[in-house]
Amino acid sequence: MERSDKSIKPQTAHIISHTHWDREWYLPYEKHHVRLIKLVDELLDRLDEDGEFKSFYLDGQTIILEDYLQVRPENQDRLQKHITEGRLLIGPWYILQDAFLTSGEANVRNMQIGHQDSKRYGEPSKIGYFPDTFGLVGQTPQLMKQSGINNAFFGRGVKPTGFNNTVSDGGYESSFSELIWEGPDGSKVLGILFANWYSNGNEVPVNETEAKEFWEKKLADARKFASTGELLFMNGCDHQPAQLDLPEAIETAKRLYPDMEFIHSNFPDYLKAVEDVMDHNNLSTVKGELRSQHTDGWGTLVNTASARVYLKQMNQEGQVLLEKVAEPLASFAHVLGKDYPHHLFTYAWKTLMQNHPHDSICGCSVDEVHREMVTRFDKSRHVAETIVDDSKRMIAEAVDTSGFAAYGEEVLPLVVMNMTGWRRTGTVSIEIDAARLYLREGFSLEETASRMKDIDLNGRELVDDQGNAITCQMEDLGLQFGYDLPDDKFRQPYMCRRVRLTFEAVQVPALGLRAYAWVRRANAGLPIAPESLLQGDRVLENEAIKVVIHDNGSFTLSDKASGMTYRDLGVYENTGDIGNEYMYKQPEGEQALTTKGLQANICVLENTPYRASVEIKHDWEIPASADNKLDEEQRALVYYPERKAQRSSDTVILKLRTVISLERGGKGLHIETTIDNKAKDHRIRALFPTDLNTATHHVDSMFEVAERNIEPATEWMNPSNTQHQQAFVDISNETAGLTVANFGLNEYEVLRDGHNTIAITLLRSVGELGDWGLFPTPEAQCLGEHVVRMELIPHTGDGITSGAFAEAYQFQIPWVVCQTDVHEGAVAPVYTPFEWESQELAFSSLKMNEQTGDLLLRWYNMSQQSTDLTIRSTIPQQYFYKTSILEEESHPLSSEEKGSSALQIGPCEIVTIGIRR
């Protein structure tokens, strides 16, 4: 596109002071932390002096305030003063997150907590701030609009900004640095691209000679992209100390350019000036995801999705536990009378989100950073697990299990809870205590152990609330130590006889529960078990699919509904990787290794009426590392696409253990792979050829099932076209489709190999950070054992109406089970507090608002068409209302009948409903 350098008069240079504060990156957190303290100390001193230094933007993240006050609590009043006066602009986020690697709910909590923290000081800045986010999800405009934000400032995703802050010269997606960004639901915001990066006004000279040279270039660069005479200059960069003499530098600029106005500005003033003169009709509209697809593909930073995969898995576990388990359980328990632990949720979310900045969750920092992340993941998870344990016990105690009393005294009830948004059938395991003996009862340890060992476990079976016998596998775990931590007395240790029960829970309601009991009764064990799901040791089959395993460990999957057969599934691929934590680079000319030619060791691992599992083992000889040239190139800072290193001739054995499992009522095939990694500088992927002819595919993203092209844009030069995913990727045509669900495996590629093969990255091993220097990261080689999980879900061509996408979402969420006793209760043995029906809606969250005590439920429309939602509740309430993601009530909803409400949901809409009780 041709651009005009013609100046637009009058012109104003808006110079905004800021720092982009990566809490941790090429230095460990505390080393960056010390520098932050110094920066804010000096900034406060300058702000205290006079009003010449107008304002400073604290990078859009309130955690900067927390980090500073942790060391300097005595300066809180000084901070408060300048925030109140509008000289320190804070919020709207808690942290600056990576968009593609953090969940939709995590991004909502980020905005909510950022607003809550900001309001302790004043008002959050309503700036959609994404200065260095590695691409942006398509639903960002809708999330901004629901947050009362009408703009988005960003540095990546569309041209002209590229990796290492280089500027492109053609093929623009937007005519100007100002653009209209439209989300899939139609929401629109004003997009401001940092076309010359968020440091284009950094270190403004005071000296006239230097200033003249500086401004000649900077003004020309800004005019190249701006649509108006309101020119934006960002005075700061990564960890940049505040330029305290900026007022003096601005005075120099005014003398040099008397026809221009130079002001020490801020984002609200800049936006108002732009809006006052902008002609929106001249702006380009960019729709959907911003993923740098119209570039050469070498600088997208997409392979941070596979750097240190273990972090992504821990993050997914932490997100799911908080948003999909702990919050809905705590909401359910609150309805039954238990206090909702808002303070614990805020602490757990903040601790988790401290791992969400792009240099943290992306795995592209030095090793010390990521060691500390593991501790934070554990801390957040431990809080969430405690909330889950307390909540599920409260719920189980409220379930009416008195009907099981008919089986006598030796009755052990248990409650299965399904916290997904769909009815669920699947295999469940629970460890229960068949008998306990508390140490306070005075028996010797020897006698206690003897009594527990003498417990008779025979003659028992599992029954449901209707008395139906449930096929169940019991594993005797023997003598175990345990303890209670009562609220009103000292800890209570005990010894017990523990067993593990594994069975199929059938049709457990969405956000609901079903009670069972392990009982002793005559004729126990007599029910006729269903037929085995195995045929020999190579074939697994249920009513939906059939799987045939081959000698090399690959398998064929036949979908009975669509009639489609998928072949050569489960082959593993291994290639060298001479890139870094940011980007993958395969050695030139290297041929990928695969397990196609290997002989696998195959055996049956499990054969029960409800599930069958087969173990597949490979001993795979692969190169031990890259050759010595890689070290030379790293030390010489050779740009990774230009490296010539190859793989070493030395080899090691890579051990792969794959367990594929099929459940009786399952819609998909579960895959668990254990990798014993002893090699460096390489990548491992699982390959799933689809042989479906289509030009596009679908992938789970934040509050969206995004559609993407299989062929990259014409500008794309990188041989690799890996992309981000969250829960799944899907390839479909009119009659058949294959969805590959994953847990914490955020990178995939659809190979242009004639088969439209879905390749899921399982592990990537590299030895340097990358970017602007040499930072060795030996722990990013990820040596040792790793376990990854996937599910293959075939369907009839539409992932929504077939339920394949719902199955993929359920794959993320664990069952919750709890042992209880026989008692009366207000909750029926099969129960859910909410009911709704909609194929198009994906349920996202259930939580409680801290200020109002209202329950908030959120869904998003997976489809491009409107759909209806009718929700019914058995919880006493005053009324239903619609709200934003900030939980600010917009309008009440009409009620069709007592306890129900209905509304229409727009295409791709994110909808939150409040229930006031």
Automatic annotation (TrEMBL):
Gene3D superfamilies: 2.60.40.2210, 2.60.40.2220, Glycoside hydrolase 38, N terminal domain, Glycoside hydrolase family 38, central domain, Golgi alpha-mannosidase II, domain 4. Residues 304-377 form the Glycoside hydrolase family 38 central domain. It holds the Pfam family Glyco_hydro_38C. One of its GO terms (biological process) is oligosaccharide catabolic process. Keywords: Glycosidase, Hydrolase, Metal-binding. GO terms for molecular function: alpha-mannosidase activity; carbohydrate binding; metal ion binding. SUPFAM superfamilies: Families 57/38 glycoside transferase middle domain, Galactose mutarotase-like, Glycoside hydrolase/deacetylase. Belongs to the glycosyl hydrolase 38 family. This is Alpha-mannosidase.
